[in-house]
Specification:
By secondary structure, the protein is an alpha/beta fold. The protein is built from 10 helices and 15 strands. Helix 1 packs across helix 2 and helix 2 crosses helix 3. The structure holds zinc ion. The site of zinc ion has 7 residues, from loops.
């Protein structure tokens, strides 16, 4: 029983009243105490920095929680429960020694599914209606431990579903994954002709290149949606600004701009940051995002760009409640009705790029 975290996850993700914010403070303390007791590295790090989870009493105390650098999670298998208690191990599909992991026991898995549903529901993205799905990801039957496949299977469960087409398929002959381009085009044409609306999930670069290469001009209808994620990694030279991309998709596929939503997530963190109607990544009350100076990690003001520091409280098996990333970004406001801050991503620190799911998957695109 994790009472404080249950209370938080039973609350509206975009309620920013002082009582709702207090639910996060309490949940975070509960979670941090668990990791402090169960994970030796975290305990020693916090002891060394003279931080104890019991010190977290108010919102401003959260800013004092030391961050654990993201690369430590790539190099070590950090886990706060015994391995036998894990329900799922998620990895990014990256190669070259920088694989990202996320360990989930049954409770943490249930928590992450619940918070993802709450966030999508609050954004008006869940529905009882049936949709056809085109997913530009790995078939989860084969790649269920990959972060992207997991996310897509999770997202398809937020609505009724009719047909689901996974575009990256296992090629038995070549013993590797490849993008079935002909299958994608055939599926898009079939979905456009059907009475059931469509939801497309995947990397924006995949879709952009397919539309250009096959000169697609379809009308999937005003009830259809596009849910992107993973960014333009590896295809950054072709990246189109988000607002321009939204117009392009509306013109070429008939999906309204307000139904095009991007999602930012990190395997090590697990909280989905999802676009509102206006195309801004909203930060739910299930997390805190701080922006810090790359020189001394001091807290920067809203609007200033620096390293992103994430806090979350739902995961009791993976000791990353306070994660210091190598991503650059800033906090801003949005004029929509959701409230809270929005996260603007501006790039990555350092010269060594982390090879993530998006990068590896993009290398499958034929030029
Ligand atoms: Zn907004």
């Amino acid at each position: 029983m994790k009472t404080a975290t249950d209370n938080l996850l039973n609350s509206n993700p975009f309620d920013f009243s002082s009582s709702a914010k207090k639910l996060f403070v309490e949940s975070f303390r509960e979670n941090a105490l668990h990791h402090y007791k169960s994970h030796e590295f975290t305990r020693k790090l916090w002891d060394h920095l003279k931080f104890h989870p019991q010190l977290i009493k108010t919102e401003s105390d959260l800013e004092k929680v030391p961050g654990t650098m993201v690369h430590l999670f790539k190099e070590h298998e950090f886990c706060s429960v015994s391995k036998e208690d894990l329900a799922l191990i998620l990895t990014s599909s990256g190669t070259g020694g920088q694989k990202s992991h996320q360990f989930l026991d049954a409770l943490s898995l249930e928590n992450v599914k619940k918070l993802a549903l709450n966030i999508h529901r609050a954004l008006g993205m869940s529905s009882d209606k049936e949709y056809n799905y085109l997913c530009f990801t790995y078939d989860p039957k084969i790649a269920n431990d990959l972060g992207t496949a997991f996310t897509d299977e999770l997202l398809t469960n937020f609505t009724g579903k009719k047909e689901v087409y996974y575009a990256i398929q296992w090629n038995e002959e070549k013993q590797e994954f490849s993008l079935n381009e002909e299958g994608v085009i055939e599926t898009l044409r079939k979905f456009a002709a059907s009475n059931t609306p469509t939801r497309i999930l995947g990397f924006p670069a995949f879709l952009y290149e397919m539309i250009e290469k096959y000169d697609l001009q379809l009308n999937l209808g005003p009830e259809s949606w596009l849910q992107t994620g993973g960014g333009w990694k590896g295809k950054a030279d072709k990246e189109i600004p988000k607002q321009e991309f939204r117009k392009f998709i509306q013109a070429r596929l008939g999906i309204p701009e307000s139904h095009q939503r991007d999602l930012f997530g990190m395997v090590e963190h697990g909280i989905p940051y999802v676009d509102c109607e206006q195309g801004n990544l909203h930060i739910p009350n299930y997390a805190r995002v701080y922006v810090r100076s790359p020189y001394d990690l001091s807290l920067l003001k809203k609007g200033e760009t620096g390293l992103i520091h994430f806090l979350c409280s739902y995961n009791f098996s993976y000791p990353a409640p306070s994660l210091l990333t190598t991503d650059y970004g800033r906090l801003e406001s949005c004029s929509c009705s959701l409230g809270g801050d929005v996260l603007v991503l501006t790039g990555r620190a350092g010269v060594t790029k982390h090879k993530g799911c998006a990068l590896t998957a993009l290398s499958l695109l034929r030029n």
